[in-house]
Amino acid sequence: MLTIRRVTLLITLALATPVVLSAIPTEAFVARPEAKTETAPATVAGDSYDDSAIWIHPTEAAKSLILGTNKKGGLHVFDADGKPLQIVNPTAHPNNVDVLYGFPLNGERVDLAVAGCREKGKACVRVWRIDATKRELVELTDGNGIAVFGAKKEPYGSCTYRSPKTGKFYFFVNEKSGGYEQHELTTTDGKLTAKLVRTFKLDSIAEGCVADEETGVLYAAEEKAGVWKLDAEPDANTDKTLIAKVGENGLTADVEGLAIYYAKNGGGYLIASSQGNNTFKLYTRTENRFVGTIDPKPGKLGSPTDTDGIAVTNRPTSAAFPNGVFVVQDGTARKDGQRFKLYAWEDIAGDRLVIDPNWNPRRKGD
């Protein structure tokens, strides 16, 4: 028979005993991948490479391409393992680059590379058609490119967007003080044209951006503040929410490149370059909940520092990257030129993150 004294003792012991819920992680996830390989060096010494984009071949994964900007030169084209194939527009000085799939041009669907360029005396965006057969870029814009900011302010960052609501194609471009322009890409008489459809502004220096083509959201990095989230549709308001703040979860200024790892049913991750501590922060695509950190090991190729642009794909690109690849600009100022480092997604994901090589960036009919 329990006495009042014994009951009191049992309650006291129960309250003093800690409850451990083993199913709830108590520490942030940290991935320590080593680079599998790296691209050929930049053709210009010093701070030259900046951003990258990954293009997935429509039928043969091993023929996919990596595009890399050289802000002191042109747009570089590499194969899926980083070997150089082509340099286009060597005086364009592109800063950021992105890819659009399935753009309608002259009765067919083509893939585009879009880059903000800082060539002397011009503030413009240039567009190239990606030839899947020859694996090369062919420029669609004329000698002056698409003028942005009245051709008076240098483009800093840029990214593309295909609306899930209307199917229309856009690019966003920003300048140093945080001003943004959104342009719609169309064709007139078989030629590529662009129309300014919206402007807005962040409070200070902005560069990296990425648009989610399923959720219709734009993520915009403000270097000293963090990552903003706003509606990517041209007729939407410009209200924004700070979903990742500098100083929280190790996010350290400057906040630079942004990329999205897509997975089915809204899964996947937003990835941000935390330049101040040479790491990359992971957030869920839907709730933007902090997941963890990518902190690359030095390995035989060294670890990246001062990273600007990043790119990621869930799709297989070569035998070395059967589950996707994460491409990182290495800002280390080597005498023989900077490089982009390539990481296998499974080396990042381990058993903690989603691996979904089946989600396809191409829509039906592209």
From TrEMBL:
The keyword RNA-binding does not apply. GO terms for molecular function: inositol hexakisphosphate 3-phosphatase activity. Gene3D superfamilies: TolB, C-terminal domain. Residues 1-22 form the signal peptide. It holds the Pfam family Phytase. Keywords: Hydrolase, Signal. It comes from the Bacteria. Residues 23-353 form the BPP domain. The keyword Translocase does not apply. This is BPP domain-containing protein. It comes from Gemmata massiliana. The lineage of its organism: Bacteria, Pseudomonadati, Planctomycetota, Planctomycetia, Gemmatales.
